Amino acid sequence: MGKLYLVPTPIGNLKDITFRAIDVLKEVDLILAEDTRTSGKLLKHFEITTHMQSHHMHNEHKTVNHLIEKLKAGLTIAVISDAGTPAISDPGFLLVRASVEHGIEVDCLPGATAFVPALVNSGLPNDKFVFEGFLPVKKGRQTRLLLLAEETRTIIFYESPHKLIKTLGHFCEYFGEDRLVSVSREITKLYEETIRGTAKEVLDHYTNKPPKGEIVIVVDGKHK
Q: What does the alpha-carbon distance between residue 118 and residue 101 come to, in Å, rounded to a whole number?
């Protein structure tokens, strides 16, 4: 039997990769990358020459069985996403599940994940929280927001910059304008910032200053 590694990659600052991650990526037989062009730059920077192939949301259903056969044959495989920890709002889950079902060893390395620093520096309670990832774009969005309006734990979302205004508007509508919100943008990068306030205050800020870059939203839970 081979072994499957899930290797976190930097979400912005290249120094955030671990020594162990570099060693694993150099030693495995194959690297599965969400985007080989993006990951190619990372591998080149750290002088990693391991063979790489594409593994993304559009082909992972079709390639799982083939990859399981490779692992059964003794190959070691590492999964990386464009940034952060694989399988967290990124490809990886299907292969992990299949590996577990076939008795193949899975090892997820610790490392960069955007929602953890966003949660910790939000100033909102972090002893209990729920990670929602991306909200449904259309179907099921209202139902999800109505359900989350009653959630008492801190809630974490990922969002794209061009949808942030719409999402903050929905938070005002479903959670209330006074619900506390923290928006972290461009985490670990040069223009990193965190804007905190009520849902209405944060909405007003980004209405006047359109956001750019990767975004994590942290929302206070409903107070009993």
A: 33
Q: What is the pLDDT of residues 184-204, one digit of tens each?
A: 999 999 999 999 999 999 999
Q: Which of 171, 174, 159, 172 is nearest to 212 (CA)?
A: 159
pLDDT digits over 36-78, tens only?
999 999 999 999 999 999 998 778 888 999 999 999 999 999 9
**At 216, which amino acid appears?**
V
DSSP symbol at 218: E
* Count of residues making up the chain: 224
Phi and psi at 41, nearest 5°, equal -65, -40
Three-state DSSP at 148 gives helix
Distance CA 4, CA 79 (A): 8
SS3 of residue 129 by DSSP? strand
Three-class DSSP category at 38: helix
pTM flag (> 0.85): yes
Q: Which one, of 146, 121, 42, 133, lies nearest residue 87 by Cα?
A: 133
Q: Is the sign of the CA dihedral 3, 45, 118, 174 positive or negative?
A: negative
